[in-house]
Amino acid sequence: MLDSLLGSFNFTWIQKFVGHKIEGKKPSFLKDLQFLLVGPIWLLGSILRKIGVKY
Q1: Is the pTM of this model over 0.85?
Q2: Which among 17, 29, 41, 48 could disulfide-bond with 36, CB atoms 3.0 to 4.6 Å apart, if both were Cys?
Q3: Distance set, CA 40 to CA 23, 24, 34, 36, 53 (Å)
Q4: Domain ranges of the chain
Q5: Predicted confidence band of residue 25 (pLDDT cuts 50, 70, 90)
Q6: Confidence of residue 54 (pLDDT cuts 50, 70, 90)
Q7: Residue 9 has pLDDT above 80, yes or no
Q8: Are 46 and 52 in contact (CB under 8 A)?
Q9: Which residues of 16-43 are buried (b: 16+ CB within 10 A; e: fewer)?
Q10: From CA 16, how far away is CA 11, in angstroms rounded?
Q11: Whole-number Å distance between alpha carbons of 22 and 8
Q12: Are 35 and 29 contacting, i.e. CB atoms less than 8 angstroms apart?
């Protein structure tokens, strides 16, 4: 199962870069590291709200 999860993860990241190449735009997180952290922080906030942790 871990192999399929890692394979899916890698495939989606490759597709992300292919899409950026087609658009002709660089990913924003290459410009500014804060954009790379937005997703994980948002996900953590969602999880904390669901389990009732106030922050």
Answers
A1: no
A2: 29
A3: 25, 26, 11, 8, 17
A4: 2-50
A5: confident
A6: confident
A7: yes
A8: no
A9: eeeeeeeeeeeeeeeeeeeeeeeeeeee
A10: 9
A11: 21
A12: yes
